[in-house]
Amino acid sequence: VSGEAMERSLGLLRPFGRFIELGKRDFAEDRRVALRPLRRNVTWFALDADEMARARPALCAAVLGQLARRLGEGELRPLPATIHAPDEAELAFRALQGSRRIGKLVLRPPAVDADAAAPADILTDAARGTVVVVGGTRGFGLAAARWLADRGVRHLALLSRAGPATPGLEAALADLVARGAAPGVQACDATDAAALGRALARIRAAGPPIRGVVHAGAVFADGAAAALDPARAEAVLAAKLSVAENLDRLTADDPLALFLLFSSAAVPVGNPGQLAYVAANAAVEAVAHRRRAAGKPALAVRWGPIADAGLLATQEALATAETLQRRIGAAPMPAVAALDALPALLASGTVVAGVARMEWGAAARALAVLNEPCFAAVRAATGSEVEGDLRAALAGADAATALVLLREALAAEIARILRLPPGTVTPDATLGRLGLDSLGGMELRVALEQRLGMPVPLTAVTDTLTVEALARRIATGLAEGAAPTGEALLAAHDGGKAMEVAA
Fold it and tell me: Bridge partners of 306?
């Protein structure tokens, strides 16, 4: 804990007691602390485990080794814990909310079906045979082939229209061999069912059974919807849907463990100029759903923009990447970082999943669809609102307008936390009487600080603190140029390390 809560904890020490502060917030914000509790000959230690590991790695290793030994020998015992089943999650959080417990609350994860293949098992099973990668001689398909080779897939059959004539293929094959794979390449238009059938027959005759399929092929015909003629749309649709249908039908008798279809993050949000491409990927996802309904393996992944493979991997494509980021809030990510999400997706048992680095604040300004109810969970999880970037709006607003924006933001966040209908939180409503407790107050403070980039003066939830009063406090802090939040300062101190999330 931090702030006043930390000071009260310090005040609980008996004479000659010791207080070890592990939190960083008060230090990052350069907060002043009352020294009265120290009069009882107490000792206050500040311990930053990250800094200790950087500055004194040998000491850190020795201390952690001692802790591990003492835990293993039972000299140190864990705190008391109350274990809850997965379906008791709400009960556990209510107990946490009401401080009705001693020690820790533990949620036991759901039991895993022993008959269901784990992600490593799916890849291991696929590696026992041949994995066919359509569109595997270049771009993101080739990156996927490399990724599979790094995870033990030896027999790779790479299909594309150009086949052995693909520019730069010799170096790509040498790289796959260096990774332990034995790649084969065939020229095949996979939209032609007869040609694909012959190619698959040759693959079966030349090596182990086909146990994996990856459909990474695509054709692009971007342009305004009004200018999209049927022939161009058919080419885009065929490269996705026809190939998926052909692979589904022609591998029906193969012992498949992996059937991976490449879709696009543009499917749920759209992308100007890519009407046919979005429709084709949505159709591919339908194939995945149909296969799973029939008890067959299938996973369709909505990939976001890939920085170092495919269309965006050239210097000339920088403008395209910037346009994508501006239009749908999707920032390019490295191919390996994206593909590394596959084991978790396979483990989840999902049929369609997305892997993209989304900047929801930027997306919200351009995509009205994000205001639809189906994106409510995204807005709640990211703290983003479709009305745009609050910090940017406040930066260009006068005092009266800023106060209105802050009132609206506060009301929206409180309504989200308490699950109240929008518009029911009025400026004169008191936080305590609305039902916001200390845990909810902490959630409110964190959400506002993420949106504002400054500390929020909310130390306690009371029956007298109103939405209006808190909005005015924040407005005063903005006007006075409040310091960055502790998280921002820590990020700068630690080198700006960022964490990526796969959705």
Answer: 333
How many angstroms separate the Cα of 115 from the Cα of each of 34, 82, 119, 121, 427?
Answer: 59, 30, 13, 11, 55
Contact 2, 26 (CB under 8 A): yes
Residue whose C-alpha is closest to residue 86's, from 108, 114, 112: 108
Paired tokens of 367:
């995509």
- Alpha-helical regions (H) of 43-168: 49-55, 57-72, 89-97, 119-127, 139-150
Close Cβ partners of 158 (under 8 Å, ≥ 6 residues apart): 133, 136, 137, 141, 142, 145, 183, 184, 185, 186
Cβ(226)–Cβ(153) below 8 Å = no
Provide the terminal-to-terminal Cα distance of the chain, rounded to the nearest Å.
30
Confidence band of 300 (pLDDT split at 50, 70, 90): very high
User: Which tens digits make up the pLDDT trace of 368-388?
Assistant: 666 667 777 666 666 554 444
Q: Considering only CA atoms, which of 379, 375, 339 is closest in space to residue 355?
A: 339
Instruction: Report the predicted TM-score, pTM, of the whole model to 2 decimal places.
Output: 0.55
Task: Report which DSSP code applies to 316.
Answer: G
**Complete DSSP assignment for 231-276:** HHHHHHHIIIIIHHHHHHHHTTTS--SEEEEEEETHHHH--TT-HH
pLDDT for 59? 92
Residue 386's pLDDT is what?
Answer: 42
Indicate the angle between helix axes 193-206 and 243-250, nearest 10 degrees: 50
Q: What are the start-end ranges of the H helices in 12-115?
A: 25-28, 49-55, 57-72, 89-97
Separation CA 365–CA 373 (nearest Å)? 17
Which residue's entry shows tokens 């936390």?
Answer: 417
- Rounded Cα–Cα distance for residues 95 and 402 (Å): 38
Q: What percent of the chain has pLDDT over 90?
A: 34
Ramachandran angles phi, psi of 294, nearest 5°: -90, 5
